[in-house]
Amino acid sequence: MDKKLDHIGIAVRNIEESIEFYTKVLRGSLIDRYRSEAEGVESEIAIIDIDGDRTELLMPTNNTTSPIARFIKQKGKGVHHVAYRVEDLDEARKELEQQGIRTLDWSLRTNKHGRRLIYLNPADTEGTIIEYCDYPDQN
């Protein structure tokens, strides 16, 4: 199945400063900004577009339970995940299973933009957090 880079997620401590850097220095455009208190997300999210490429800035809203907070405590701020767009998330999951790659089933969800997503198990990806996503309403 074909894959295309969809976005890069960046864990940040201060979303205001990060937005300023990405919009002023890198000359990106703030596309959306929202807060998600969903279990397994618990973050404020800013989506930046830089010449057609997307970056998601992720700041934890709960320093106890947010996975972004845990990531920052363990590894520091910086690249959190790389997301690849697939044509059909269900088919991509079957393909991963056939290849012996596990997914984190608890992470399966649809975000406010209609993007369905799931994370691959970092134990099977050389430690990199990889997201697969599709946009079923755009097909």
Automatic annotation (TrEMBL):
<dbReference type="GO" id="GO:0004493">
    <property type="term" value="F:methylmalonyl-CoA epimerase activity"/>
</dbReference>
<keyword id="KW-0479">Metal-binding</keyword>
<feature type="domain" description="VOC">
    <location>
        <begin position="4"/>
        <end position="135"/>
    </location>
</feature>
<dbReference type="GO" id="GO:0046491">
    <property type="term" value="P:L-methylmalonyl-CoA metabolic process"/>
</dbReference>
<dbReference type="InterPro" id="IPR051785">
    <property type="entry name" value="MMCE/EMCE_epimerase"/>
</dbReference>
<dbReference type="GO" id="GO:0046872">
    <property type="term" value="F:metal ion binding"/>
</dbReference>
<dbReference type="InterPro" id="IPR037523">
    <property type="entry name" value="VOC_core"/>
</dbReference>
<protein>
    <submittedName>
        <fullName>Glyoxalase</fullName>
    </submittedName>
</protein>
<dbReference type="Pfam" id="PF13669">
    <property type="entry name" value="Glyoxalase_4"/>
</dbReference>
<dbReference type="InterPro" id="IPR029068">
    <property type="entry name" value="Glyas_Bleomycin-R_OHBP_Dase"/>
</dbReference>
<comment type="similarity">
    <text>Belongs to the methylmalonyl-CoA epimerase family.</text>
</comment>
<dbReference type="InterPro" id="IPR017515">
    <property type="entry name" value="MeMalonyl-CoA_epimerase"/>
</dbReference>
